[in-house]
UniProtKB/TrEMBL annotation:
It holds the Pfam family PLAT. It comes from Jacana jacana. Residues 1-105 form the PLAT domain. This is LOXH1 protein. InterPro entries: Inner_ear_hair_cell_LOXHD (IPR052970), PLAT/LH2_dom (IPR001024), PLAT/LH2_dom_sf (IPR036392).
Length: 175
C-alpha cells in the first residue's frame, strides 16, 4: 500500500525561476506510482539554472491514495547534472504527519560525498549481518579492556560483568 492512484503534481524551483505546478502524467511504466517502482517522466520547462527545491504532492483522490515517496532525482539535460531530493516519508492523510504534499530541498552531492555508495554499503552490511539480531540469539562481544565478554540476551538482559569464559559459543568482536 505504498503506491498511489491519485494525480501527482510537482513544482521545480531553480535560481532562474520555477516550473509552476505540473501533473506527472506519462511514466515510462504502464502503471505509475506502484510500490517499489521507479517512474521516469519528461517535464518540459525553460532552463532553471541550479535547482534547489521541489514541491511534490497529490490530490488525495482515488482509493489507496496514500503514497510513500523515497526520493526524486531530476536530471538536467543541459548540464547533465543530477539533483536528488530525499523524502523517505508518507504523503498520506492517514499516515505520518497527514500531509499529502512535501517541500524537499536538494541533497547537495558536495555536502554528502559518496552518500549513495555509503547507503549501498549500509544495506549490504545489514543484509549480511541481520541474522545475528534474530529472535533467540544471544550476542556476545569481547571487551579488549576487561578481557571479558559482554552478553546481550534475547530477553533484553545485559550481562556486562566481563566474564572471562565464552558462555554461548558465538563471539562477535567489536573494536
Amino acid at each position: 500500500n505504498a503506491g498511489t492512484e491519485a494525480d501527482v503534481y510537482i513544482s521545480v524551483y531553480g535560481e532562474k525561476g520555477d516550473t509552476g505546478s505540473r501533473q506527472l502524467l506519462r511514466s515510462q511504466k504502464p502503471k505509475k506510482f506502484l510500490k517499489g517502482q521507479t517512474d521516469i517522466f519528461a517535464v518540459e520547462a525553460v532552463h532553471l539554472g541550479h535547482l534547489y527545491k521541489i514541491v511534490i504532492g497529490h490530490n488525495g483522490l482515488g482509493s489507496g491514495n496514500g503514497w510513500f515517496l523515497d526520493k526524486v532525482v531530476i536530471k538536467d539535460p543541459i548540464t547533465d547534472l543530477d539533483y536528488t531530493f530525499l523524502c523517505h516519508r508518507w504523503l498520506d492523510q492517514g499516515q505520518d504527519d497527514g500531509k499529502i504534499a512535501r517541500e524537499l530541498t536538494v541533497t547537495d552531492a558536495s555536502t554528502f560525498p559518496g552518500r549513495q555508495e555509503l547507503e549501498l554499503k549500509r544495506e549490504e552490511t545489514w543484509a549480511a549481518e541481520k541474522w545475528k539480531f534474530q529472535k533467540g540469539n544471544t550476542l556476545q562481544f569481547y571487551n579488549r579492556l576487561t578481557r571479558g565478554f559482554i552478553c546481550l540476551s534475547p530477553d533484553s538482559g545485559v550481562d556486562a560483568l566481563g566474564d572471562k569464559k565464552n558462555k554461548y559459543g558465538k563471539v562477535f568482536f567489536m573494536w
